[in-house]
Amino acid sequence: MAVEVSELPLTFTTRTAREFGLHPRDLYRLRDDGDLVELSRGVFRQADAAAPHWPDLLAVAYRAPAAVVCCVSALAVHDLTDEIPSAVQLAVRRSSRPPRIDHPPTEVFRFADATFELGVSAVEVAPGESVRVYGRERTVIDVMRLRHRLGEPLALGALRRYLRRGDARPGQLLALARDLGVFGPVRAAVDVASAE
């Protein structure tokens, strides 16, 4: 084996390993010997690398790089819920094929192509490694839009928690709600939550 583990990126895919000249047989031997940890099928991390803050998000981002972490998973990242997501929730463009990921468990939402990139930001999930996630305002709006599927208590709780934060930007929240075509319901919920 000509390639040393330290020569590989901290997190990488089987394809990347092959590009570095590492044969799959050697890759799996390194995994079996404990030099690598397999985060998901075909996604590996050096065993001595710093532990990721969000290992499931890191794994899923390598499996579906065009997807964006959304809904309850994004609420957890932004500390807007105490709920622990049972699956990583991802958004993909409606025109794209949804990824099939068994581990970690995932739930895929299909969002309109025209508004897919609105409110996308990034969060560091491991030292020096970030994944795409919807920002706080977009996430609150999305759980409000999907409250019939995710639950109204979750959506309203996230909105209240967002509005109580010192760095809340209700004007930006409403502007984004207008861009996403849900200004009326979001404005009504903001008014109710603000009056409490």
What does this structure look like?
β2 and β3 (43-46) form a beta hairpin. The model has no long low-confidence stretch (mean pLDDT 89). The protein has 196 residues and is of the alpha+beta class. It contains 9 helices and 8 strands. It has 2 domains: 9-46; 55-186, no CATH class. A 3-stranded antiparallel sheet has the order 1-3-2. Strands 4-5-6 form a 3-stranded mixed sheet. It comes from Actinophytocola glycyrrhizae. It holds the Pfam family AbiEi_4. Residues 11-45 form the AbiEi antitoxin N-terminal domain.
- How far apart the termini lie comes to 65 Å
Estimate nothing, just give the exact number of structural domains: 2
Rg estimate, integer Å: 19 Å
Rounded mean pLDDT is: 89
Q: What low-confidence regions span 5 or more consecutive residues with pLDDT below 50?
A: none
Q: Total number of helical segments?
A: 9
Helical amount: 40-55%
H/E series: EHHEEHEHEEEEHHHHH
Secondary structure: number of strands: 8
**Residues in β-strands, percent:** 15-25%
Decide which structural class fits the backbone.
alpha+beta
Strand arrangement in the largest pleated sheet? 1-3-2
Summed up, what is this model?
The chain has helices spanning 14-19, 24-32, 55-63, 71-77, 136-145, 147-150, 152-164, 170-179, 183-195, and strands spanning 11-13, 36-40, 43-46, 68-69, 88-93, 106-111, 120-126, 129-134. With 196 residues, it is α+β, with helices and mostly antiparallel strands.
Give a topology summary.
Layout: E1 11-13, H1 14-19, H2 24-32, E2 36-40, E3 43-46, H3 55-63, E4 68-69, H4 71-77, E5 88-93, E6 106-111, E7 120-126, E8 129-134, H5 136-145, H6 147-150, H7 152-164, H8 170-179, H9 183-195
Parallel strand pairs: 5-6
Antiparallel strand pairs: 1-3, 2-3, 4-5, 7-8
Helix pairs in contact: 4-5, 5-7, 5-8, 7-9, 8-9
